[in-house]
Amino acid sequence: MDERYQAAWRRSLEDPEGYWGEQAGALEWTRPFERVLDTGRPSGQWFVGGELNACHEALDRHVAAGRGEALALVYDSAMTGEIQRYSYAELTRRVAELAGWLAARGVTPGDRVLIYMPLVPEAVMAMLACARLGAVHVVVFGGFGAAELASRIEDTQPRLILTASCGLEPGRVIEYLPMLEQALGRITHRPDACLVLQREAHRARLDGRHQLDWQTSVTGSTPAACQAMPATAPLYVLHTSGTTGRPKGIVRDTGGHLVALRHSMSTVYDIQPGEVFWAASDIGWVVGHSYIVYGPLAHGCTTVLYEGKPVGTPDAAAFWRVAAEHRVNVMFTAPTAIRAVRREDPEAEKLAGHDLSALRTLFLAGERADPETLVWAQRKLGIPVIDHWWQTETGSAIAANCLGLAEMPVKPGSVSVPVPGFDVRILDDQGEPLPPGEQGAVALRLPLPPGCLAGLWNDDAGFARSYLERYPGHYFTGDGGVLDTDGYLHVLGRVDDVINVAGHRLSTGEIEQVLAAHRDIAECAVIAVPDALKGQLPLGLVVLKAGVARPAEDIAAELVAKVREDIGAIACFRRCLVVERLPKTRSGKILRGTMSRIAAGETPAVPATIEDPDALSAIRTRLNNVGEEV
Ligand code: COA
Ligand code: AMP
After folding, report:
1. Which of 101, 161, 207, 223 is exposed most, by the fewest CB atoms within 10 A?
2. Ligand 2 within 6 A of CB of 496
3. CB distance 570 to ligand 1 below 6 Å
4. Pocket flag, ligand 2, residue 240 (CB < 6 Å)
5. pLDDT tens, position by position, 5-17
6. H or E stretch including 23?
7. Is 286 in the pocket of ligand 2 (CB under 6 A)?
8. Domains of the chain
9. What is the pTM of this model?
10. Which numbered ligand comes closest to the C-alpha of 315?
11. Backbone conformation region of residue 469, classed left if phi is above 0, alpha if psi is from -120 to 50, else beta
12. Using one digit for the tens of pLDDT, what is the confidence trace for 183-232?
């Protein structure tokens, strides 16, 4: 293994204070930290006593350094055909003005502001304006339905909500205000007001009291200055799916996060200030938080905000057009997106005519990258394609080919090696380390490096239960995997009930909650079934209450519609089978894992603890035919 990488990684574990203390020197601290690492809390606290401001790091400091005219953000909408370009100076001006309006509406440090918006520049401005004031932003993905939105509002009790009149999906306009009304109808919390960005595709009717027009309200507000915040203060809460029916509010701190992101921009992505970084994601996901907004901007890069799809807007050349037009140097997307492009344009003929000479590297993450897709992209683009692995909780990559240290050989199917700061262990059920080549649970030895979750919003017990208790002294990632004899990590997928659809993390528990609330359903289970494009898709299995005589197809259709309404179309929940019984263990646990493996064409051993083997046999036939049946 490369010596430079080895030395950096070793040092990060043997002398974390030295390693990260040096990295922190890249930031402008308004008050220096007293300690690099405080291990008083189990997962560690970074840069205690220090103060800084995340918006200053992302914007003002570049302007102050004379780079005000450098390009900060390029917005490219395949949905409207618009392209907008913002220099660092202009983006700073717009963000300061919005922050001024928020402050005038009473937003103070620590207040929560919820952002439910499509991928438009104002959404990025909203995040940065909150950061400027030390307010905690809570971004909710624009594709989530009323129930998901409601639970996030209720959990974080935002003072204000920032939204837009609509989002744009191919062939469809998504109106946000009715969704917001529905969400508020389910809960007791009331924000002071909603600021609504009017988009041309659909202008919403606003009441003018609680629903305020963005343009007229914000324009001319007195700009707000950056508020110095403790390094340990929360910058944002971002909810993600867990194994329960309730999303987990991941809390990200300020100082550690920015140190980790700056570090990753150079160590993992090997990109220089002034170059162009494009994460084809959404600000509703962690990739958007880290690599559309804070990472590239804090590093002084140009970030690309693309509103559109890899295919269909208008065709499979969309990514190549954007990358060529904006001279993208480093790109990041999900394997599903590349699979979609490949499916439509197997020979990559649509690359022709697009000058991708600036593009050095393509990074993939969010789900397993199948080797065929990775190798296809590598061959067609003629550049390294790097799979790297991380999660909402860690905020940046746990394992990657760290190009800024050394370009190591790419092994398709592996996410390469631990990033400095991460001590990756493979553990057996008892928490004992397993030797290379043996599969187990992937855990990270504590303390976690800077930038990882500081906890769960309002749920310290849940933080300990979900991540820290299973393997004492370690953080449990929820993934299974294996380290090979070269020290490369292979991630084999979740070992819990979280599923991954098109690189989006979904909880089977949340979908089950929607199904279980239907009047005709006695019990239910949601499992993952393989899908050639999206990796996995959810499949519902429901048992009807005794005496229900309505046609199974009608009930299944109602359930599909309800999941779409409550969770959102993004769940891709389109298939639901009515079954006689669900197979369970003697203690009553539904055999979701076993059923998933059957649906994937495997023949898993029947668990010794099974209650009713006939129930499993009956369902096996249905699952084996799942493609034809639904
Ligand atoms: N707002 C509202 N609805 C949304 C939405 C949003 N922001 N994003 C997606 N949806 C809807 C879609 O319109 C679609 O609705 P439909 O069922 O009526 O068609 C549904 O959610 C599923 O969306 P999507 O996964 O985008 O599926 P698709 O079939 O329309 O497109 C791909 C297929 C491959 C193009 C798409 O899945 C894709 O781009 N995947 C990569 C995603 C990605 O980058 N993930 C990683 C994030 S880090
Ligand atoms: P999220 O928190 O939404 O980013 O989802 C994180 C989960 O996605 C991880 O726990 C993995 O299960 C999966 N994941 C992300 N990146 C990869 C990858 N490169 N390879 C395999 N699985 C991945």
Report:
1. 207
2. no
3. yes
4. yes
5. 999 999 999 999 9
6. helix 16-24
7. yes
8. 3-308+388-481 (3.40.50.12780), 502-629 (3.30.300.30)
9. 0.96
10. 1
11. alpha
12. 999 999 999 999 999 999 999 999 999 999 999 999 999 999 999 999 99
